[in-house]
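anyone seen this seq b4? input:
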Amino acid sequence: MIQTILLPTDFSVTSTNAGLYAVALANQIGAKRIVVYHSYDAVSASEPFKDYTQKIVTEPFRQKSAAQINEYVAFLSSKSSPNVEIEAYHSHADLSEALHDLVKKTNAELIIMGITGGGKIKEALIGSHSISVAKKSDIPVIIVPTEYSYTPVEDILFVSDLKNVEETTPVDSITDFLKVTKAKLHILHVTDNPEKAATSEGKLKLEKLFESHKPDFHFMNNPDFVGAVDFFVKDRKIEVVIVVPKKHGLLESIFSISYTKTLAFRGKTPLMAVRNTHK
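predicted toks r here
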């Protein structure tokens, strides 16, 4: 069950939209708590008065952060069910490290973050905090595009390369999400040989792993991986796309972190990145 959602924010339009998504999803799945977190920046001070000076420099940022986060929580509370508790934390800390600590402290089962789509220049400038968190997080991370308006989750797409499925597929996390949303599971494999893939060992093992959910398998022959996923999402009206960011040694597979990043930036549908932490 997913009872607690962790929601990092920078108070931008993008993160506000992610907040609205978190509230709507919490209402759908019956989550009890949303934990908002903001990491505020401050100028580093030099020795020998580092501690004293840094406290003075940081304090205005802390005060501004406190005011913003209180306003943000009030806004989300006005959009949320009374059954969902919204609490907030803020600190001057590295985002990934802070979220890692908060996951342990709050027992959060899901992180929801926003992302701004665009071209390569915008991608480079943003620095992709969402992708960085997704690469390191021990719990699933849903990345919500700025322009996405929440639609109840009824159809979920899991994109698989059918390689080492028993070792790499985060079955528990995906199953938990399927249970709380009661959504239909679709599994897509992009390949140049759909007939071979349909009878492959990877497909048969994946079918067994999710047999209680009776997934629909789909095989597409398309040299444009992202284009194939995008077409399928639009055609089947998918509400969430699940990917597993991973690497195979020095060579990244087609379902590598770079492709996960591309899907996150270019896609117009929420992307759930799930690492298999039970290897």
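The two ends are 21 Å apart (CA to CA). Residues 42-50, 117-127, 248-257 have pLDDT under 50 and may be disordered. kinda curious what u guys think
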